[in-house]
Amino acid sequence: MLKLEALSFHSHGRVLLSDVTSIMPDNALTCLIGANGAGKTTLLRILSGELKPTSGRFLIDGTAASSLTKSQITRHFSIIPQDVQPPPHITVLELVTLGRFHPYGALWWRLNDRDLDTVRSCLNLCQLGQLSKRRVDELSGGEQQRAWLAFGLAQEKRFLLLDETLGGLDVLAKQSFFKLLREIASEGKGVVLTTHDLELVADYADRVVVLNNGRVPYEGPPNTNLRNFLTSNC
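and the corresponding structure tokens:
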């Protein structure tokens, strides 16, 4: 479980996050909602260890992140940033296989049987088995997002962080992606997604954290009242 306690972040005299307090559980799809500039990406960068909060703290399973090195923090998180592009000419299988890469001992790194089983499992879960030999840059937008999701899952980390990964997808592709994220969360992974798709959030999210000018005016389960709140505040 991730727990944020009065977390704030300032940069160049600007307050990007202010007294953010929230819980992001395992086994749940948590959606961060807010207008552009509300602080969603900044919050993900703090969770991933890329940024350090100005004040407050966040805990990973009860351990304060401030007591961990950046390397130790990143062992908990798979991250898929905005507008991520695949290397040229790489296949779906090769991309997902890279999720098993370990930087330590890189010169001697080889796939073992467990790595191969994990790659196959992630391809199948993301419905990419028949596309494994296709180049990623030849896929549709929805297929590319599933390929990157499989890459993140192949890392086998506790939490999956996705930053605005649904841009440019049609309604059916977005719906399919949300269903897949909900399934992944139900199997034990904590999934945190920033998004503007309020209708899909209301249908599929387990938990919602609303960010407005760096603050959290609401966190909790999505419901009809929340739908109205989001429409008027984001």
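(Above: one complete record from the training split.) The mean pLDDT is 88.
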